[in-house]
Amino acid sequence: MAQDRIVLHYLKDSRASRIVFLFEELGLEYEIKAYEWTPELVAPPELKLVWPLGLSPAVQIFKADDPEPIVLAESGQIVQFILNNYDSEGKFKPESMRDQVLVDYYLHFAEGTLEPHIVSLLVGYVASQRAPFGFGWLVKLVLSQINSQFYLRKLKTALAFLNSQLEAKDGGYFVGNKLSGADFILDFPINENLFLNPYKVKRLGIDIDPSKDYPRLVEWNKLITERPLHVKALEKKASVMKNKRGLLG
Amino acid sequence: MAQDRIVLHYLKDSRASRIVFLFEELGLEYEIKAYEWTPELVAPPELKLVWPLGLSPAVQIFKADDPEPIVLAESGQIVQFILNNYDSEGKFKPESMRDQVLVDYYLHFAEGTLEPHIVSLLVGYVASQRAPFGFGWLVKLVLSQINSQFYLRKLKTALAFLNSQLEAKDGGYFVGNKLSGADFILDFPINENLFLNPYKVKRLGIDIDPSKDYPRLVEWNKLITERPLHVKALEKKASVMKNKRGLLG
């Protein structure tokens, strides 16, 4: 049986990052089509040809007997579909119904509850950078109030929750004793958005000290990022994204 | 076989609204435990006893032979689990793999891509209301720039996308020719957040004219809200929430 042809549409610095990790761990054959941000800091219009919203990640799956690809265009949906259809040995399959419930929870939590706060902090940062000359301080002042009362407070609550979930199971992966959809989906917000580049995080006004505030989450992050296929995914991304324009320059 | 005992934890004016519609359409027996917002406009701490993040909706499922409930705490995960486990006649089951892929897409899209923009517009509105005396205009000025460049623009893009998806299939429900998880998950942001109360929407700075801008979405909204069990769900919510404090007073 011919393997399905799988194409990952990858905008630099986007949530698509986690999908490379997923594909590498599954040993899938896949292609990456790389995109860069426009100078106006929006996704390029070509992405709309893949899926009308024009966001990344988007995955096209071409089956041998069907000219029309299946298109997946939300991270949680991608991870869920790929694991359901391409983890033929059940390597990452949860071991009980309760574990599956928990994986499904994280698949929705990462984009529905955690990531929006990080995005809003980024949007506020970009807005203060783009404010008319002399007004950046004013935008920062207004936003720092909203951030401390809402986005930053919510983000810290979500991180403390994740840390306590790991604490309760004495560390390791998020669900059971092995890698699962939960780890794939959380890789982007925790590793790439928050822990990988403390300087960038500080610029966004996120005043966290991961080793002190979320030690279990830091252990988890180490566990994930030291996996050989995570390292390979990072190298692959770097080589494909070379010379592409990212979101924060 | 005894039916599982199902408890919906429902904070007024929250995303839990859609779950009542889901339960009514499935003819499930369930209990509602109602909560009100605190005077500080946050969810009450009792919700943390159900699930540590303390958000709503949360659903507990008590099986006859197990003292420990299964807890579901993200809207998309709840709709998915409930449909997988309690739609025994397959009334709302998609008719093809491609339709299932699309339902799963919307289950992630509603909270991951659509709802965060509405929440940010609400957060901005609340911030401008709470600004120190005389400074509300300044907060509004700063936020109106960010809204028009980001949140409002993104929201309108998402609504136009939904409208075009319905247009492409010549109206009706979002997937196939029947109600599915897609309609259950989209009920809250489209109906309750945006179309039900045009005055509230204007207050948030959302300058849309649904019948003109998104006519297919308005038709869909009518189709959904005129279903007898949607009407029943609304009456049930009103009676349970009577005298409870809501988010916008």
TrEMBL record, chains A, B:
- The UniProt record lists the GST N-terminal domain at 3-90
Tell me where on the tree of life, at the top rank, the source sits. Answer: Eukaryota
UniProt-listed Pfam families? GST_C_3 (PF14497), GST_N (PF02798)
CDD domains linked: GST_N_GTT1_like
Protein name per its UniProtKB record: Glutathione S-transferase
Entry's family note:
Belongs to the GST superfamily.
* InterPro entries, A to Z: Glutathione-S-Trfase_C-like, Glutathione-S-Trfase_C_sf, Glutathione_S-Trfase, Glutathione_S-Trfase_N, GST_C, Thioredoxin-like_sf
Domain (GST C-terminal): give its ranges. 96-247
The residues forming the signal peptide are none
